[in-house]
Design goal:
With 310 residues, this protein is α+β, with helices and mostly antiparallel strands. The chain contains 11 helices and 10 strands. The chain starts with a helix and ends with a helix.
């Protein structure tokens, strides 16, 4: 595929408002699942994956024939930029508790009947919490069934989309070619490293005693509990669990108590809320070792990095 530099620049511009590399990667993995389930390839006239030059409206949408099946939307609420993911579901989704009685499903609307369509049309649900949506798709048979049946129904509905001229092969490549996707994400997020040497999971956002579902705010952050962090440092001390570095010994009083805290299992992989145990789930590490732990996905274990240091 010959790549259009202007389109790549537009793609990068649209991605930059996302909260993290992991968030964007998860979104395109979801798009890839849509393509895998439906069996649609880039040259199929039913498929439209567009890259809109407009900064408003739905972004990175996937249309099958006449309807959106997945898209994301950017909105500003209380001076914070929020992203919402929209997904198509069969009409019986209104009977599924997770989709109708959860605050993470912020908006839902039902498509209008198309010409010649006499059955009840599907719904398009908009989710505040993307990681929670992914969790339901993996763990709830009813949620997955409602989603996949809606996808199959749209494929069967027609043989071509009236919006086909808007199809952008670059977006198909972004979904199915993980190496190309990684290159694009490298270009985007190399320019937005966390300030003060903090990794995304190191930025504190005090909340409840629970940590879990990803949170979209202006900085690249997950939910974090300051009391759990403090309990971890109180138990293990402000000494790197990998290399043994102590900031106070090197920098004196200004380094007293300074240390990063590493979550042994990244919360982005958990999805559902859980109660963090500061002794078993957290470890104090210096910024250098913390960065090296995250040089791989999934991150290196503490022992793996200790072996590398030797």
């Amino acid at each position: 595929m010959s790549l259009d530099n202007d389109k790549i620049e537009l793609l990068i511009k649209r991605i930059k408002y996302a909260p993290s590399r992991e968030w964007v990667n998860s979104y395109f993995e979801l798009v890839k699942r849509v393509l895998t389930i439906t069996g649609l390839e880039s040259d199929n006239p039913r498929l439209v994956m567009s890259l809109s030059p407009n900064s408003t409206g739905w972004h990175f949408p996937v249309t099958i024939n006449n309807r959106y099946v997945v898209a994301l939307r950017k909105e500003k609420r209380n001076e914070q930029t929020r992203l919402f993911v929209g997904l198509i579901f069969a009409e019986f989704s209104k009977e599924i508790p997770q989709l109708q009685h959860n605050l993470d499903v912020s908006t839902h609307w039902q498509f209008k009947n198309l010409p010649g369509e006499y059955s009840e049309p599907p719904y398009f649900l908009r989710f505040d919490n993307f990681s929670e949506l992914l969790y339901w798709l993996e763990t709830s048979e009813h949620v997955y069934q409602s989603w996949s049946e809606a996808l199959f129904a749209e494929v069967k509905r027609a043989k071509s989309s009236p919006y086909r001229k808007s199809h952008e092969p670059l977006m198909y490549t972004m979904a199915v070619d993980v190496d190309f996707r990684a290159e694009i994400l490298d270009m985007v997020f190399a320019e937005s490293k966390p300030r003060l040497g903090l990794l995304p999971e190191q930025i504190d956002t005090p909340h409840e005693f629970y940590e879990g579902a990803s949170k979209l705010i202006m900085v690249n952050a997950y939910e974090r509990n300051s009391q759990a962090r403090n309990a971890c440092i109180e138990h293990y001390g402000a000494e790197c669990s990998i290399c043994g570095f102590i900031f106070q010994e090197k920098y004196g009083e200004i380094g007293k108590g300074f240390i990063h805290v590493h979550h042994i299992k990244p919360l982005g992989e958990i999805g559902a809320e859980y109660h963090v145990d500061p002794i078993t789930d957290l470890r104090p590490v210096c910024p250098n070792c913390h960065a090296m732990l995250h040089m791989r996905k999934p991150p290196y274990s503490l022992n793996e990095l200790r072996v590398i240091l030797k």
